[in-house]
Amino acid sequence: MLSCGIVGLPTVGKTTLFNLLTGAQVQKSQFFSGRIDANVGIAKVPDARIDFLSDLYKPKKTTYAQMEVIDLPGLVRGASQGQGVGNAFLDGVRQVDALIQVVRAFNNPDVLHVEESIDPMRDMETINFELLMADLDFVDKRITRIKESKKVKPEQLQELAVLEKCMAHLEQELPFSSLELEPEEQAALQNYTFLTDKPMLVVVNLDEEQFATKDYPQREALLAAAEAKGLPVIELCVQIEEEISQLDKEDRELFFAELGITEPAINRVMRVAYETLGLISFFTVGADEVRAWTIRQGTTAKKAAGEIHSDLERGFIRAEVIKFTDLAELGSEVKVKEAGKATLEGKEYVVQDGDIMHIRFNV
Questions:
Q1: What CATH number does residue 345 fall under?
Q2: How confident is the model at residue 332 (pLDDT cuts 50, 70, 90)?
Q3: pTM value?
Q4: What CATH number is given to the structural domain containing 17?
Q5: What is the Cα–Cα distance from 15 to 26, expressed in whole angstroms?
Q6: Does 282 reside within a domain?
Q7: How confident is the model at residue 290 (pLDDT cuts 50, 70, 90)?
């Protein structure tokens, strides 16, 4: 299962966001607690297609796609040099597949900010800078280690050349993700993890007034900087999301109507994280279970079958594929087949997001 790490400065709403995503009830702090442990939970990826299929098939069980979510210790300026809980923070970042960066825009004098002022643009830059400095420190140490080796192998010389290219790039305060490398250069670095190469999205935590007006300090600068780096931004009010999570279905719908929204903003966080990782879902359906299965874009039908069970991959014959859009339009598998829109696909078929698959196999 792939994982997302929630990162940010202390007291920005990370743990509350974690609780909302995972259904956990981890205690929150209004102050910088200095904790070095991470909170770990599982979040479902909301998907209206699964809701539709569950209503259609009325299965005994409905299973959404899932991701592991990790609430990492709060970062402070100087974390890349070990300040605060820097080492614990950086170790946690290295372990996750993607990052959800939370920055604070909300005003609340009872919740102290570690920088003593509210500036989400500054906070985003602080986090990005610390990640970049950690990468720079890693590359510098690796270059030094190779240069000081008594006997340098040919492959280490190739690695050294690539690392020096990385160093020059990072010294310009550019993330590793924007560095263009040839396939053989990528191969030389395949065993290393660069923090600034991880997919990331930004969550701006607003207060209720800011959520209504979409007006908060440095908004235009933050959105422009995020767009320049290709980072998706989600603006939400964690306090409102908490209130929504405690309402029953009828009251929730009334609340949505008052706010002019159709679903909690929190739902978008996991969907965007899913997309940021290049993940898609295919579905299996039936009276026992309707289920979303997670695969990477470009996965073949045979490999996708292996996500269900290794026997299905080993004995794969064909996959009967129905497009979700066709099923939603026509209303039943029978009608989809009558319309000639169900297809039989071989092992090299590239599964598309929303495919409904029945695997034929023999072992």
A1: 3.10.20.30
A2: very high
A3: 0.85
A4: 3.40.50.300
A5: 7
A6: no
A7: very high
